[in-house]
């Protein structure tokens, strides 16, 4: 903070503190809150498809009150670090706070991925909003003793002043609907350090948190099944029992003509406008959502008379390349498809590139890559290369995992290979849980740990051990 605002005092006088903090709030913190709110909304608008945008709602923001902050500075864990009032913004990171509420656990993961794409804050790099290094706290993975579950991350925003830009940390708390309800019902703030709560209330609140966490898990299962049904619709499969696929057409250019529909022409124009601006491959589902948000959900059953969205894309935009496992990706017009993207419209399982046991394991193991052997090998190789550039592998935080994943994706991209962040994060998470992150990490050691982990999961799920051993080794092991 500037010298003007950093009115230092060694006194415990609340009036002196209040005077200092009032000036800081008026000149800096209120502006930081407004800037962070605006940029956070813009970030979500840019990265979340219109139909899913309503799943992310900012439900509150605040600048910490003088009374509550003063009380916090008196706690021993902070008091020993504060000799001047100007030390407070460096010691306490939630002077400004924003609460974001999402529908499901998968939405939390989406937000985490969006934030991970932001630059990390560094004094020498001036960007409007960045992520404070090592600031992620995942209370879904490790709930507080009270039962509190949320995802926290600190964003650093720059507030302009006459002489310079002042960096301000803004704590963003992300909760699911159910966990936000728990916070409101139990007044989670009463569990702050120094508060005294009767033991029976603590027990009942913890029980409520655990019940709602179980319901969150069920809600996530429902969400995943709905996503599967949506993917089938995009790919042209029936959602009726048996999952029969729509009959393939032999002449896509005549589909619309043989089944004329007055919506085909406007839909086609809107689709080509979207494709013209593509800068990277996009899931077909996200493109379909853009059209649904423009024309309404009633277009989805027919897609201009073509029957499925994939068929519509191939009919309305013959130059578009649609590749990858169902429901597929559409690539920027006029650009080459990356070499290791599947170029035909069948999944890895249907081609025989994905072992049946992996397809079955994916039902129980969230995040397991369901890709061909070559894609798994590329991911392992990129991960090993990124790990070998790090000195300390024993105390990896979630931020460290995100950094390693970015490095792996970037290095693979430079080599012309497609590696996606969730697959790297999955492998890193398995390695960390197995305490297998060592300086001599190799592709074989990574594959061996994954093999052991998945074999155990498969045996728990009742899969034949012999088939597990053979198919996993063939899929994971290099050479």
The backbone outline, from C-alpha atoms, is globular
Rg value: 26 Å
Low-pLDDT ranges: 1-11, 238-258, 343-351
Number of helices: 18
CATH fold group of the largest domain: Beta Polymerase, domain 2
How many separate structural domains? Answer: 3
**What is the CATH C-level name of the largest domain?**
Alpha Beta
Structural overview:
There is one protein chain. By secondary structure, the chain is an alpha+beta fold. The chain folds into 3 domains: 14-197, Beta Polymerase, domain 2; 252-346; 349-476. It has 18 helices and 9 strands. Strands 1, 2, 3, 4, 5 and 6 form a 6-stranded mixed β-sheet that branches. A hairpin with a 4-residue loop joins β5 and β6. α14 (373-387) packs across α15 and α15 (398-414) crosses α16 (421-433). It is globular and about 70 Å long. The termini are far apart. The model is unreliable at 1-11, 238-258 and 343-351 (pLDDT under 50).
Give the SSE layout.
Blueprint lengths: L13 H34 L8 E8 L2 H8 L2 H4 L8 H4 L4 E7 L2 H12 L12 E3 L5 E2 L12 E10 L4 E12 H10 L12 H37 L19 H4 L5 H13 L5 E2 H12 L13 H8 L5 E2 L5 E2 L17 H4 L4 H6 L11 H15 L10 H17 L6 H13 L9 H18 L4 H12 L3
Parallel strand pairs: 2-6
Antiparallel strand pairs: 1-2, 3-5, 4-5, 5-6, 7-9, 8-9
Helix pairs in contact: 6-7, 14-15, 14-16, 15-16, 17-18
Task: Pick out its properties.
six-stranded mixed β-sheet, three-stranded antiparallel β-sheet
Summary of the model, kept short:
This protein has 479 residues and is an alpha+beta fold.
